[in-house]
Design goal:
The protein has helices at residues 11-31, 35-61; strands spanning 65-70, 73-77, 94-96, 100-104, 112-117, 125-130, 137-140. It is α+β, with helices and mostly antiparallel strands and 142 residues long. It has a 4-stranded antiparallel sheet with strand order 3-5-6-7, with helices on one face. The longest helix is centred in the middle third of the chain and has 27 residues, at 35-61. It is elongated and about 95 Å long. It comes from Simplicispira metamorpha. Keywords: Membrane, Transmembrane, Transmembrane helix. InterPro entries: N_methyl_site, Pilin-like. Pfam families: N_methyl.
């Protein structure tokens, strides 16, 4: 008479399955990240780069450059038209509060900031700011 041994899963097999499930759950969580927050962060990073570019052009040319938010986008007064983009990537992006910054030509421009929001998600706001010496950076709005 032959005895059959009951077989189950080994501890190693169970750990592999749990690990795969954890990775899949993390992947789904990242994929479902709030798109509006990502969009706002993308707008903020792009604006910070554009402001730094305009600031460098202002210093190089010695011409006063101002950034202003306008309906549907923004303007760089003092730069030749077409030098830098003037539209948001997402048409719903808005500026909360004062929408004007002075970018030079002086090396020190003073602390300045602009707050970006999207009306469909007012709880998300992003601050693009400089202390006047360092480059513009993004962060959560106060």
């Amino acid at each position: 008479m032959t005895l059959r041994r009951a077989r189950g899963f080994t501890l190693l097999e169970l750990l592999v399955v749990v690990s795969i499930m954890a990775l899949a759950t993390a992947g789904v969580g990242l994929a479902l990240r709030d798109g509006s927050q990502q969009s706002l962060e993308r707008e903020g990073e792009r604006l910070a780069a554009l402001l730094e570019s305009a600031r460098a052009q202002s210093r190089a040319s010695g011409v006063l450059v101002r950034w202003r938010a306008v309906e549907g986008g923004f303007r760089f007064d003092g730069l030749r038209a077409g030098t830098l983009p003037t539209q948001w990537l997402d048409n719903s992006t808005r500026v909360r509060g004062p929408g004007s910054l002075v970018l030079g030509p002086e090396p020190l421009i003073g602390p300045q900031q602009v707050i970006l929001v999207q009306p469909q998600h007012p709880e998300h706001a992003l601050r693009v700011a400089t202390d006047g010496l360092r480059p513009f950076t993004t962060g959560p709005a106060p």
